[in-house]
What does this fold into?
Amino acid sequence: MKMINAILLLSLGSFLLSPSFGQEQIAYGSNNGKYISIASTRIYYEEYGEGPVLLLLHGGLGSIHDFAMIIPELSTHFRIIAPDSPGHGRSEHADSLSYQLMASFYSEFIDLLKLDSVYIMGYSDGGNTALILASQRPDKVKRIVVSGADSNTDGYKPEALGFIEATTPQAMEVYMPEWITDYQNKNPQKDQWAKFINDSRKMWLKKVVISDADMNQIESRALIVLGDQDAITLEHGIHMHRSINGSEFCVLPNTPHEVFMVRPDLINRIAIDFLIRP
It folds into this structure.
């Protein structure tokens, strides 16, 4: 039963919840994307719009496409910079995969692009990375919006933990061959997909993402967002909110973990209000 529940959750993930219903969206991969080399790893990114810089960090097993439905509106207010994380989408694989590694990549990314300061919106794994980056780079990160993030594995609901434990290369071959095909069509090192799945699962199961002490040191203004049907518990969201001084907390009604695809208009309104507010 745990395996079945896990695969059902996976089926509701970012691959199958593709933008639809006539919602305006970007065409990922066709926007003159660029590559930048970080630690000998080529990282793919796309840019949209003008204004204050908003860095978008996508979720696990995902890509820039996670934000396809929110970028059009956000790009009327901000200069959107959206990268594919190491090993994800069109980016090359690093030697390993961890939230700390991704935060270090994006810290260097900010410096290499010579960005004076940034806003960050992170989804799931990208939200975890945003928390670490904000704690490490108060000189660069002004405000963060994180959705579906967790500071440690205590935040997972049982079905989410079941999904993580069941996400193996073998399960993907049986239940999600479409994801494998999509991944291999995008990634320049497509033969590493199975290692990528194993590395992702190992990262998800590591107990601590960011300590309470490090969250307490975050100086950036922060907004913690959860869907009321999220993979992360409400209690854990409140814990993160209380651990980050001066942060704000928002629960979206009738909303699962995949808020950026299911409720794009709602998350955009909330994020824009938070980011442009004096």
About this structure: Confidence is low (pLDDT under 50) at residues 1-22. The two ends are 49 Å apart (CA to CA).
